[in-house]
Amino acid sequence: MNEIKYLKKDLEILYKLQICDIKIKNINEKINHIPNILKEVNKVLEDKKKKIDIEKNNNNKLIFLRKEKESLLALKENTIKKYLTELNVVKSNVMYKTLVIEIEKAKDDKDVIEDELIKLMDAIDKNVCLIKKKEKELLQFKEQTQKETEKIEISADLLKKEISVIKKEREIYKLMINSLVFLEYERLSTCCNGLGVSLVYKESCSVCGIMLRPQLINKIKKAHTLVFCDNCSRILLMGNTI
Length: 242
What we know:
This protein is mostly helical. Helix content is 80%, strand content 5%. The relative contact order is 0.14.
């Protein structure tokens, strides 16, 4: 009878140790996921920066085009002045008419260039406003990102501390369990997705769900020795003993 009670106690403590292992595993998954979260946050930040850089680059192209148009406008204005000067000294009617035509053509070209310049300047002004707005939004996002990063890092530290506490609890349980029973649990945990022990509820293995044979149920209740699930090979423990 003493032997039965001793093994039952071992299994009960073993199950508590497994709960510690599950908690540690879940917390580690959260900790391991943190770099991905930070990476995603930084990616959003970099994407916003790139979009602003694209806007600035496009605006620089418009500014360059505006300068070209301004140079072309100045050239047309000089051409008109030149033709007007020549118009005052020309003596031939044919030449006079030719100059008048050229002046009108140059004025038309000038009007077109001026319209293009107005559109370019308007586009540049709008882009400057848009860039300033996006830069302001980026600054706000940076501040928000910094705060979120700090929260995530604090959360990571808390999770690590939590693991440390659970590991100490696990170590206490380990020392209370028969070493052979613990080694069997470790072996099964390695090949059974971290679950070496399964509780029995309604005559079924709670992990794989298989219905257990009556003989197996009796062995589990007696607890003379370790009993394993026929399907998933985990150590079985009656659920009502926990």
